[in-house]
């Protein structure tokens, strides 16, 4: 058993090993998490969460690393969470990330953590927000969440950040990919990375067209900017930071930030509740009450919906 109080205190002081252990408790769905989250709750809310998503290889990790440098120059403490739900290539990708992030490895103002949620009961949607809480409580001013892959749950994690950055690169057939993955609806800031390659302008134009940015918007509406970068040379990264700052200011001005955070908390509660319910239902095989209900359904004396209602009432009515 872990001394949660002590661990949380150490994490709050910014000790990297304590932060790492707390995130491991999240990853392992430790029974002590309930206690951990109760201790962390009053310490959270200070961090600004930025999600980064985009096709594999588009330059998310390189951009993340460059953003870390920019924020460190401004004296901010930064947390990086790379979440990889299931990719069989994760070993390689995360190894690559370690190389790309290595320049920050010895900086005490930066926490970098890769998190795998493969086979996890609640999956990414369950684990990522809790890992973000740990980094938030540890005093990070900014948390960059890179999701590896463009599946539905990865896109959702990025979309639930305070600000969501969608990355594209020229010549990857990215336009169609992006439309397919539904990421054209979620970007607050768009980055066309690898602008040192041919076609970056065309990609930006195509994106501009697909986003309908030429269309009129209300005077108070947010207009997602498109920023061109060469992340590998840190070019354009200051412009990305500027776009992130502007989006944050806009959200605060229009009370959008508070609403977003409530939506994120609601999803978090929902996921925890559903995971707990599913776990309880999962242990019902051979349960007498369930067997009895099943007999009545096969008899035709009870319909399956009414049986399910009885089952759920039995699970939650204690
Ligand atoms: N030419 C060019 N290459 C870049 C640029 N940015 C990143 N790369 C290269 O693109 C490759 C992929 O970069 P990553 O940062 O790992 O991309 P990623 O989106 O994190 O990839 P996954 O996490 O595997 O999805 C690496 O070889 C980078 O060096 C850029 O601006 N220009
Ligand atoms: Mg990456």
- Low-pLDDT runs of 5+ residues are 87-93
Q: Which structural category do the helix and sheet elements fall into?
A: alpha/beta
Largest sheet: 7 strands, parallel
Quick one: overall form? globular
What is the multimeric organization of the chains shown? single chain
Report the count of strand segments: 7
Succession of helices and strands: HHHEHEHEHEHEHEHEHHHH
Radius of gyration: 22 Å
β-strand percent reads: 5-15%
Taking strands numbered 1, 2, ... along the chain, how are they ordered across the largest sheet?
3-2-4-1-5-6-7
Report the average pLDDT across residues.
Answer: 85
Named once each, the bound ligands are:
guanosine-5'-triphosphate, magnesium ion
End-to-end Cα distance: 28 Å
Please give the share of residues in helix: 40-55%
SS element count, helices: 13
Explain what the structure shows.
This protein is an alpha/beta fold and 318 residues long. The chain contains 13 helices and seven strands. It has helices at 4-12, 16-27, 33-40, 60-73, 90-101, 123-137, 152-159, 174-181, 200-210, 237-253, 256-282, 288-299, 304-316; strands spanning 48-54, 78-84, 110-116, 142-147, 163-168, 189-192, 226-228. A seven-stranded parallel beta sheet has the order 3-2-4-1-5-6-7, with helices on both faces. Strand 6, helix 9 and strand 7 (226-228) form a beta-alpha-beta unit. Helix 4 packs across helix 10 and helix 6 (123-137) packs parallel to helix 7. The protein is globular and about 70 Å long. Mean pLDDT is 85; it is low at 87-93. The structure holds guanosine-5'-triphosphate and magnesium ion. Guanosine-5'-triphosphate is lined by residues 56-62, 93, 96, 100, 148, 193-194, 196-197, 230-232.
